[in-house]
Amino acid sequence: MIEVSRLEKRYAGNHVLKGIDFHVRQSETVAIIGPSGSGKSTLIRCLNLLEQPSAGSIRIEHQQVHAGAISKKTIHALRQHTGMVFQAFNLFPHLTTLENVTQGLITVQRKSRTQAQEEGMHFLTKVGMAAKAQSYPAQLSGGQQQRVAIARTLAMQPKVLLMDEPTSALDPELVQEVLQVIRAIAQEAITTVIVTHELRFAQEVADRVMFIDGGKIIEFAPPAEIFQRPKQPRTALFLSKYLEAEYAI
Ligand SMILES: Nc1ncnc2c1ncn2[C@@H]1O[C@H](COP(=O)(O)OP(=O)(O)OP(=O)(O)O)[C@@H](O)[C@H]1O
Ligand SMILES: [Mg+2]
């Protein structure tokens, strides 16, 4: 479903991704973990060409992209398959919850308003936000806004769902309600890649966990292996530091 080979990303003198190779199977849920600045966001942003790769190639579904001059048409074609959820929810403040979800259906997918509203309500129900369909983002909590943002992305029915730390902008008491929604999505057929600092969540929900450090994949394996029997000392060190910090809270 996703195939990345020899992916590199440089910003001026900063070599951020240093040769990334992996594939993700259809319906798989992959969690990306790693220290701050290791290149997690850069990697997930390269997957839908929010960042242009400096070298290598990416294939999503049947759409193959090579680094170099990437046309708008190619970017558009690749994004047909992907949906992205960001740390900052990026809802349109002047649109209601339902309008936020139906906007892409109407303007991009050219669906009728009635059809879009029907589908929009379906996805809002899925994330437990149907009752707030007529509210504006400012009237919602951060967790509710993120659930709407997730519904908006799901409504476009992407083949691949990409999420970059979807809970890290939330107050701690709101994190669980969003993780609960993501947990339910992960159990469905959609292929999901999620960057997260919620290690316990990654352990519980992901089919495989990718540990990135210094712009390289250090280890990519099922959670039981990564968390209980890490092969690489760097993985073990990261986990011990991180889990220690989590216990300290
Ligand atoms: N637009 C940019 N221009 C220049 N350098 C950038 C840009 N975006 C990211 N970088 C650099 O790339 C490196 C990796 O950043 P990235 O955001 O991918 O890290 P991350 O693993 O997502 O970290 P965090 O856990 O803090 O979100 C950092 O050194 C960062 O400074
Ligand atoms: Mg990041």
* Biggest sheet strand line-up: 6-7-8-3-9-10
- Beta fraction of the residues? 15-25%
- For the record, the CATH architecture of the largest domain stands as 3-Layer(aba) Sandwich
For the report, how would you describe the main beta sheet?
Answer: 6 strands, mixed
Question: How many structural domains in the coordinates?
Answer: 2
Low-confidence stretches: none
CATH topology (fold) name of the largest domain: Rossmann fold
Subcellular location: Cell inner membrane
Family: Belongs to the ABC transporter superfamily.
Main location: membrane
Keywords: Amino-acid transport, ATP-binding, Cell membrane, Membrane, Nucleotide-binding, Transport
Notes on the structure:
With 249 residues, the protein is an alpha/beta fold. It has 9 helices and 10 strands. It has helices at residues 40-47, 72-79, 97-107, 113-126, 142-155, 172-186, 199-205, 223-228, 233-248, and strands at residues 2-11, 14-24, 29-33, 55-60, 63-66, 82-85, 160-164, 191-195, 208-213, 216-221. The strands form 2 sheets. The chain has a 6-stranded mixed β-sheet, sandwiched between helices. The protein has a 4-stranded antiparallel β-sheet with strand order 2-1-4-5, with helices on one face. Strand 9 (208-213) and strand 10 form a beta hairpin.
